[in-house]
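Now for a typical sample entry:
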Amino acid sequence: MAENWEPSNDAVMDNPLGGISRGWPAIRSVYERLFASDSRLFVEFHDYTIHRSDSIFYAVGRERGRFERGSVGLDLAIEDPTLLGVYRQAMSPAAR
């Protein structure tokens, strides 16, 4: 992941799991929590547009997917506030 992210504090990620993260160390922390979890997460980025200039590009879109932990499964509609709360709670360090 580090090879795909700007290593400076200029990098920003807005993600349901970690909220808004600024700078590579904060962004890396979100991915470390995700990949270290015993949960399974499937995410598809869809309904997106790519914006670019001479020196930068970024994508704006929506995510959908499925979260699984043990025998519990939850289809994710990331824009749904109720499901987002359940997802955040399940992925919090206290839930492990």
In short: Residues 24-36 form the longest helix (13 residues).
